[in-house]
Amino acid sequence: MKSFPFAELLRPEIADLKAYAPHEGQFDVRLDANEAPALLSEGARARLAEVAGQTAWERYPDASELELRTALGARSGVGAESVLVGCGSDELLSLLVTAFDRPRLGARSTTLATVTPTFVMYRMAARVRGVTAIEVPLDRSWDLDVAGFERALAMMRPNLVLLASPNNPTGRLMSADRLEAVVRAAHDAVVVVDEAYVDYAPRTQLGLLERHSNVAVLRTLSKIGFAALRVGWLVADPALIGELDKVRMPYNVPTPSQRVATVALRELGSEIDHIVEVVRRERDRVTEALERMGGLTPTPSDANFIWVRTESPAGEVHARLAGNGVLVRSFHASGGRLAHQLRITIGAPADNDRLLEVLPSCV
Ligand SMILES: Cc1ncc(COP(=O)(O)O)c(C=O)c1O
Predict the structure, then answer these.
(1) 222 CB under 6 A from ligand 1?
(2) Terminus of the chain with fewer CB atoms < 10 Å: N or C?
């Protein structure tokens, strides 16, 4: 490959990275990206197409995003002033790391703390900004290790703590008391509780916002049927929202996404509830079937995917499934205790049937 002429100017961390590339290829069933199944009614689809069609194409989007912030705030029980909208929650993670990348007094570099395994974007967002991500391993039941976290906080003094609950890829909510203990221990850092999958969980952690001024909660429409829109939002104290808003690009969410998301939230609440209900029901059905199958141990899930331990190496099971037209995610490349772990998204009932049909010959 031709060498890049500005390599000397490039952040060295970037040279080692690979661009994000979702799995290519044709598969009958894709259960790899934690998207929701396509269950919107024809009527809902027609309404959203009508709204998108009303876009004033020659105009910039509404920079204040007020209508959408109001609708998202209503979903999280807060006012628009407590909401910042991002082009996916990924953008908000980037904004947070950018805004809080100042080294503490006397420190040479900035750190953020998270767990492992977790959503890879936390590490990526840190790395491309020269911020060091400290990863505290989850315990044997994939829950927070509070003592480990307290040690990491005391030693590394991170500016930010990023915790997904339910976590990706493990699918588990963090125990409420452990999460609260980490939030307390991290009192001089901003703690972001990422609730990307909370619609599938038995409880939300929004209550932390009332008890702790250092907490922000991240949410997204991507997992409940609207990944195409790229709409995520952060709920936090208006003072923090105000500071982050200065870092946000003024037109970060395109008009069709703003309008369609607003209408979906205002008018399609029962369709979203239906998607969540079907996925939860299917999750229980698939979990039970996996438990009975042999060669596989599913972890009980609070999300729209299942974290599954395989007796055979996960990479082999993944390849055999792919050979049968079913794509899931394998974590074997990470090695260690992840070498036997798959993450399987819950799809539409017919997709899950197909998974369960081919799995016995793949494990
Ligand atoms: C824990 C977690 N947070 C955030 C995201 C990103 O969501 P969005 O589509 O809103 O950028 C994901 C996507 O997989 C995720 O797993």
Answers:
(1) yes
(2) N
